[in-house]
Structures are given as structure tokens and as C-alpha cells.
Q: What sequence folds into this?
């Protein structure tokens, strides 16, 4: 069975600092995809970044990058130069590589940015 | 529409009643997902459609929950004999067949009183 673990229930970070949100996963599949979503207090789930298990380069999208360490089964999200608007819940998730499938989510990390 | 649309945004119903929640996916997206999210928790998978058929319904908690997608576009999640424990935000998402990342709607907040 697949599982996503996020061990940081909450984090506080000073504005403009970089922050790393931890995510570890467990799967017996060789082909999988990892995602990060942001959920502000408004409740919408916003897709941030995707990393495929066969992708050799770490994914980047603007200020977001995914630190993918396959041997350790970790997929940490790095946010550079944090902004007040980054305050939200962040969820790590796993599905299939390059095809639609059931996606499972972790329990989330609540990130709060201090001015 | 441009994004995933869910209606209603809020639904209050009495225990024991039947409810239907609707999801209109992004045009052209063949995959559609239903999730349930309780306060402070991650989304819990319910069911996933590829086209008209349910590709994986392993997350439906019991036979009171049912979902359909008759024409491969709009989907309806149906809950019979609602219980107070069914109160949650029900999220719908859609994606392309060959893309794993799903895009979510705003959700329907269901409250069973």
C-alpha cells in the first residue's frame, strides 16, 4: 500500500527566508508521481509542483522546488524567499507517473510566515 | 468553464436525508476524483473515474455513498441516509488521462444536523 508521511504539523518562518517542508513516502511501485498542493484558509487546493519517479532533475516552478531523494523516499518542498501569502496548509501527495490515477495525500503541514 | 465547478458550495441537511453533490470538471479532462476532507486533515480519497466508469472506488466508506458520471463529464456524488459523521468538505478534482496532477474545485461543505 502507498503512504505519505508529513511529520511537521506546523512551522513558523520569517518572511524572506527559505523553508523546507518534509515529505516521505512509501510505495512498492517503480513508477509514481509526487505532488505538492497548497491550501489557503479559503479552502481551495492549489497544485504547486510535480516530480515523476523517472525524472532525474529536481522539479522547479518559480519559488518552489522539489528536493527529490529517491533512495531515501523523500520529496521535500523548498520555498525560497517566503512571502506572507505563503501562509497556508501544504499537502504532499502521490499518484502514478504520467497518467491519471488514485492520488493519496499526507496529513499536511501548516506554514505560517511571520512579517 | 475554466476550472472545476462544484455545486452547491454549502449544504445543510438533516440526519437521515439524501443528498447529491455535483461536480463539473475542466473541459477535456477525462479523469475525475472525489475526496472528503475533515477539518485539519488531508483529503481522503473516495472514488476516481476514467471516462464514464469508476476506475477505483476503494475509498467509498460504505454502501450509502455512490457516485456516477454517465456521460463522462459531470459527476454526482450521492449520499443516502446521511449521518452526522458525513459532515465534511467534499472536494472534486479532474485531470487529463496522461497527467497525474489533478486540479481541484472549491468544494462543497456538507453539514448534517
A:
Amino acid at each position: 500500500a502507498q503512504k505519505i508521511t508529513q511529520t511537521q504539523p506546523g512551522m513558523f518562518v520569517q518572511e524572506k527566508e527559505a523553508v523546507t517542508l518534509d515529505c516521505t513516502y512509501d510505495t512498492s511501485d517503480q513508477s509514481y508521481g509526487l505532488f505538492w498542493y497548497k491550501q489557503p484558509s479559503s479552502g481551495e487546493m492549489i497544485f504547486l509542483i510535480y516530480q515523476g519517479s523517472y525524472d532525474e532533475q529536481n522539479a522547479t516552478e518559480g519559488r518552489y522546488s522539489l528536493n527529490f531523494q529517491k533512495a531515501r523516499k523523500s520529496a521535500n518542498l523548498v520555498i525560497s524567499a517566503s512571502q506572507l501569502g505563503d501562509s497556508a496548509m501544504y499537502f504532499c501527495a502521490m499518484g502514478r507517473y504520467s497518467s491519471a490515477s488514485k492520488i493519496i495525500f499526507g496529513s499536511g503541514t501548516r506554514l505560517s510566515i511571520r512579517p | 468553464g475554466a476550472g472545476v465547478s462544484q455545486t452547491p458550495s454549502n449544504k445543510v441537511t438533516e440526519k437521515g436525508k439524501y443528498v447529491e453533490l455535483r461536480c463539473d470538471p475542466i473541459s477535456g479532462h477525462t479523469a475525475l476524483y472525489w475526496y472528503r476532507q475533515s477539518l485539519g486533515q488531508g483529503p481522503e480519497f473516495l472514488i476516481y473515474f476514467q471516462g464514464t466508469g469508476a476506475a477505483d472506488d476503494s475509498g467509498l466508506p460504505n454502501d450509502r455513498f455512490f457516485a456516477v458520471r454517465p456521460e463522462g463529464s459531470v459527476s454526482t456524488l450521492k449520499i443516502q441516509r446521511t449521518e452526522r459523521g458525513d459532515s465534511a468538505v467534499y472536494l472534486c478534482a479532474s485531470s487529463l488521462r496522461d497527467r497525474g496532477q489533478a486540479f481541484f474545485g472549491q468544494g462543497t461543505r456538507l453539514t448534517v444536523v
The radius of gyration of chain B is 13 Å. DSSP finds no helices and eleven strands in chain B. Chain B touches chain A at residues 30-31, 33, 35, 40-45, 48, 50, 55-56, 58-59, 89, 91, 93, 95-107 (CB under 8 Å).
